[in-house]
Amino acid sequence: MTTATHNIEIDRDKGDFKYAETHKFDAGVGLNEGTVDYISDVKGEDDWIRDFRKRALKVFQDKPMPTHWATKDLENIDFNKIRYYLAGDQRAKKSWDDVPDEVKETFERLGIPENERKFLAGVEAQFDSEAAYSNIKEAVAKDGVIFMGSTDGLMEHPEIFKKWFGKVIPTADNKYAALNSAVFSGGSFIYVPPGVKVSHPLQAYFRINAENFGQFERTLIIADEGSEVTYMEGCTAPKFDTATLHSAVVELVAMPGAKIEYITVQNWSSNVFNLVTKRAIAHEGSVVKWIDCNIGSRLTMKYPGVILKGRKARGEVLSIALANDDQHQDTGAKMIHAADDTTSNVISKSISVGKGRSTYRGQVRIPKHLKGCKNNTECDALLINSDSRTDTYPAITVRGDQNYVQHEASVSKVSAEQIFYMQQRGLSEADAMSLSVNGFVNDLTRQFPMEYSVELKRLIELEMEGSVG
Amino acid sequence: MRASLEIKNLNVMIGDKQIIKDFSLTIPKSEVHAIMGPNGTGKSTLAKALAGHPDYEITSGDALIDGESIINLEVDERSRAGLFLAFQYPMEIPGVSIANFIRAARNARLPEGEDLDAPAYYKELYEKMDRLKIDRKFTSRSINEGFSGGEKKRCEILQLAMLNPKYAILDETDSGLDIDALKIVSEGVNALRGPELGALVITHYQRLLDYIVPDKVHVMYDGRIVKSGDKSLALELESKGYDWIKEIAENAA
Ligand SMILES: Nc1ncnc2c1ncn2[C@@H]1O[C@H](COP(=O)(O)OP(=O)(O)O)[C@@H](O)[C@H]1O
Ligand SMILES: [Mg+2]
After folding, report:
1. From start to end of B74-215, where are the E strands?
2. A431 contacts in B (CB within 8 Å)?
3. CB contact under 8 A, A426 and B142
4. CA separation (Å) from A454 to A229, A460, B108, B114?
5. CATH number of B4-252
6. B252: helix, coil or strand?
7. Dihedral of alpha carbons A376, A222, A245, A62, sign
8. B96 vs A436: CB contact, 8 Å cut-off?
9. How does pLDDT run across B32-45, given as a tens digit for each residue?
10. Predicted confidence band of residue A386 (pLDDT cuts 50, 70, 90)
């Protein structure tokens, strides 16, 4: 790998810069069995996983686009023009010193090693298809916590991996889950042993650096009985002229009494199709909380879900989506109640700016035979200027009379008069807008970890500056 | 030249309707001028046009702060140049607390990269709130949301006190206030009077001017000033009524 090529290009965003590409491994353009074989060969995978990929490829090819309910923009993804695997190395480095310079610099600019020192229990940094760096604090590893890239996880802990992999989200769940299952690479693998409480978050950072590229990370988190873990992921990509695809699959397993908090800070550039399937299984008395904030991308379709499988399990989705000009945030939540006394809470806040479009799509299912189940769903939309569009499809199916659901929705506007008022006090138009957006999401972000709220506030400010131009 | 807020032959249109007609007025720094006039005469239009409201088009004329024209500046630039408007109808901004809002406005006045000294800021904020008899709990309440009429007006004066403008326009700050609130607000404004502030107090009623005693009074009718005088003009207007002004305006036309 050469390290002297420093063609840095910077635009307005912190994430919008890129270095020249120097990939040792490249599966080429387009997708067929050969692509899958290339990936399996390079990774040195067992046959079961190669077969799994090939079956998934078939499912992907056979499944139609979900355009009967979803946006037609999906048809603009040209799967033949995408590159499915790009990597410098398959094995992640455990020290930043060993990470190739331009990759290291990328993450330094995004503040990753600094955050690791400050408040994280472990970090994984993925660059295109593979993790370039992965490290867990010694004290946490000593408790038996496993945290590594999933390529490494699959090699080093096949017994745990195989047991859970593809069980929460089956290959055929949807076309993009099938695509991911065929060509997945990278993502995080976490196992927390019974009773272990990881006090600081584990963080993964996903970086797309190459044009025409598809990133297909696969994350699997298992929190064993009574354990607790918080995982944070951040994503960025530079702005390319052509579309980039990000299609991840994230599976969480919360064993009885376990607690998982999964936090996403997504700041994709506006050429990224972001089609992600995220789901958790929550066993008895466990709690799964998704905190999902979607900023940027051309189209995001993401509906984190929890299957409430054990008695008294609890699922939460707290989400914020910000759709700027020419962006569509199609997000929501799925709560599938499958045991008595399970509770779920969905709070969704969307902001549409200019021609930006937000859609909330929810699914809450409580079958008739259950009792003592509760769901609360709140969807609030904020419109900034009249071109904005927002739709809500809550789809709450509750059978039987021994369960309780509550649903609230609101739409509010930031008027020109409000902006004028704030500007009269000396705030720029962008500052006025981000102040009102932050005001709108405030009651939700107060529940987030501090570092994360600060980052989110900063991203909203950047986005508003961009929207005023 | 003396420092002043100078309005020169200003013409303002809303849509295709001319509201402000060749309006001229100079408010020297340290003075307080009052504009009185019947409803619909263009007082608020004048205030908002000076502040740069996008719906109010200045078709000709000029407005200058200490000799510098402001009419080509953005709304926020005019504010930072030293112009403050206490609104007749202050907007509610959900989720944005008074403390955060004023802090953001103060930060906007600092050079890039510099941040406010938070403890000093809160000390000052609390002092000024106390003086305006605003409960300290209000710092965390959203700006104007669910405030009574009087609370909104006090919150406007609090912002005025915190932002230290060179010139302030107070648009019917007295409307909706009972006599106690009127006294508190007036004391707040009077405390700010001095060599560093010029003020234009817009009011429909003479009552306010008993508490904020103006250096000059101007009577406005149909988009222009029809009569100017000292504070006794306000009393004369009070006793003779606005019909008297109509007559003067019609005779002049
Ligand atoms: N935003 C607006 N759109 C259309 N007409 C307006 C608007 N604001 C004010 N006007 C009109 O301009 C005139 C002056 O109004 P205004 O300045 O509010 O008067 P005042 O403050 O003296 O009561 C009125 O005829 C009013 O109807
Ligand atoms: Mg008025």
Report:
1. 83-86, 93-97, 142-143, 167-171, 198-203
2. 104, 108
3. no
4. 21, 10, 19, 18
5. 3.40.50.300
6. helix
7. negative
8. yes
9. 999 999 999 999 99
10. low
Could you tell me if A463 and A322 are in contact, meaning their C-beta atoms sit under 8 angstroms apart? Answer: yes
Is the Cβ pair B75, A423 closer than 8 Å? Answer: yes
Taking CA atoms, what residue in A is nearest to B165? A425
Q: Hey, what are A54's tokens?
A: 């090939």
pLDDT at A387: 66
Count CB-CB contacts under 10 A for residue A257: 21
pLDDT tens for A177-235 read 999 999 999 999 999 999 999 999 999 998 888 888 999 999 999 999 999 999 999 88
Q: What is the identity of the amino acid at A253?
A: V
Q: Which two tokens stand for residue A40?
A: 């399996």
Q: Contact at 8 Å (CB) between A463 and A296?
A: yes
Query: Between chains, do A423 and B95 touch, taking CB under 8 Å as contact?
Result: no
Q: Where are the alpha helices (DSSP H) in B20-94?
A: 43-51, 75-80
Distance from CA of B145 to the nearest CA of A (A): 12
* Amino acid at position B153, single letter: K
Over the Cα atoms of chain A, what is R_g? Answer: 21
Q: For an interface test with A, which of B91, B160, B162, B166 has the most A Cβ atoms less than 10 Å from its Cβ?
A: B91
What pLDDT is attached to residue A5?
A: 32
Closest C-alpha among A277, A295, A251 to residue A161: A251
Residue nearest ligand 1's atom 18 by CA:
B44
Which chain A residue's Cα is nearest to B156? A425
**Mean pLDDT, rounded, of chain B:** 94
Contact between residue A344 and residue A334 where contact means Cβ atoms under 8 Å apart: no
pLDDT at A8 over 70: no
Residues with CB under 6 A from ligand 1: B 14, 19, 37, 39-45, 55
Q: Per residue in A420-429, is it b (16+ CB within 10 Å) or e — as a string? A: bbbbbbbbbb
What order of strands is seen across the sheet that includes strand B68-69?
B17-28, B4-14, B56-65, B68-69
Tell me if chain B has a CB within 8 Å of the CB of A418.
Answer: yes
- Name the least confident of A364-373, B83-92, B235-244: B235-244
A307 pLDDT above the threshold of 80: yes
- Name the token pair of A375: 């769901």
As a whole number of Å, the end-to-end CA separation of chain B is 33
Tell me the mean pLDDT in the region A35-53. 95
B164 touches A at CB < 8 Å: no
Ligand 1 pocket mutation, candidates B17, B20, B45, criterion most atoms within 8 A of CB? B45
Q: How many residues does chain A have?
A: 469
CA B55 / ligand 1 centre spacing (Å): 11
Report the 10 Å Cβ neighbour count for B179. Answer: 9
> Alpha helix locations (H) across A157-312?
158-164, 175-183
Q: Do A420 and B84 touch (CB under 8 A)?
A: no
What are the b/e assignments for A145-167, b being 16+ CB within 10 Å? bbbbbbbbbbbeeeebbeebbbe
CA–CA distance, A13 with A237 (Å, rounded to integer): 10
Tens-digit pLDDT profile for residues B114-159: 888 999 999 999 999 999 999 999 999 999 999 999 999 999 999 9
Ligand number with the minimum distance to the CA of B87: 2
Ion ligand 2: residues, CB < 5 A: B 43-44, 88
For the segment B61-80, the average pLDDT, to the nearest whole number, is 97
Domain positions in chain B: 4-252
Q: Which of A427, A432, A442 sits opposite B95 (nearest CB)?
A: A442
